[in-house]
Amino acid sequence: LGVVGLEARDGLGGMAETAELTPGVRVPALAHTVGRMWPRITRDLRLRDHGLRLVQPDVRVFAPQPGGVGSIVVHGDVVKTAAELATNPLVGPADAAAWATADGQLRGLAECLAHYLRQAPLDVGSASLGNMVGAAWRALKVSARARGQRDTVELLRVMPMALRDLVDEWFDRDALRAL
Description:
The chain is mainly α. It has helices at 39-44, 78-86, 93-117, 129-147, 149-158, 163-170, 174-178; strands at 18-22, 25-28, 59-64, 71-75.
């Protein structure tokens, strides 16, 4: 296949563009993460041959609080994050203990959605409602086989929820809810 990439701006990269913050220091201009880029995409497009190098820093989020009253740090390691949150006066032990549960639930939901996103999309301009519902049902069945019925039912429960309601189920403190 021949692939042509079109860019509306002067430079290439889109959301993955890198900008020079100060001389010699290059940072993402828009997207601070590529999420969980599927290895197949990296392999099929030979992105490493074109210089792609993904960096996974230990600190994933640094959230200073208003008025200089402290900060919250999220590490790539869930256990390390929970341990650090437990000693943070902005968070408290109950929310720190809930961190691993919330992280695990979000990862499970993301995996369920990943099964759906791997399906070929329907042409919504010509598909009937029945076709769309059928495609969603098939994707949920694939997800249930791969992730288990419990995760799939949880996905159906939280999808229509406001994010605030879901976060409120996990955390009591506003600093962690906002993060």
